[in-house]
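Protein modeling request. Please complete all fields; requests missing the sequence field cannot be processed.
Requester role: graduate student
Desired output: 3D structure, token encoding
Chains: 1
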Amino acid sequence: MQSKQFGYARVSTSHQNTDRQVAALVEYGVEERDIIVDYQSGKDFNRKGYLSLRDNMLRSGDTLVFSELDRMGRNKTMIKEELQWFKANGIRVKVLNIPTTLIDIEGNDWVLEMVSNILIEVLSTIAEEERVKNHQRQAEGIASAKAKGVVFGRPTVKKPENYENIMQRVTNGEITAVQAMQLMGIHKTTFYKLKKLYWKQ
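Delivered output (201 residues):
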């Protein structure tokens, strides 16, 4: 069976764009139809596209190309484990921003592997540090916003002025839920949220 070349691109959310990565992979020579894209965090490898590519599409002798190492993932230990898995299964990994991974020199593979391993060690460390920094910045941003009074999560249900009286009448069996909704001018979902809140109180 003829060996194939696949590409992988990843961004953390669906709001981000993979065009730059895909363009770099296509320019290198990967067919666009053979590029798998994930819109998911790089904290681990539990990603639908990546797992499908690794477990179902790649075969021994194939090549997998990334535009940058952190598109593969951001956890240093996991990156190294994945690279070892690819090597054990006869799959060549190329990373466009690690030039030594792109070179083919017969008889001197050990030199290229040594240099690539050093670069991978450095870049995977940087990728993980960046992930930690992003989490720290996010936590600091949330703490700062909370200090300024910004409320996170779903907005609380606003109680109508006649809430207490109407809920008491519903509880006493004086009026039905439908009548209560009409009197308070609210929808069914809001009514049951308010009813639940009333019972808690």
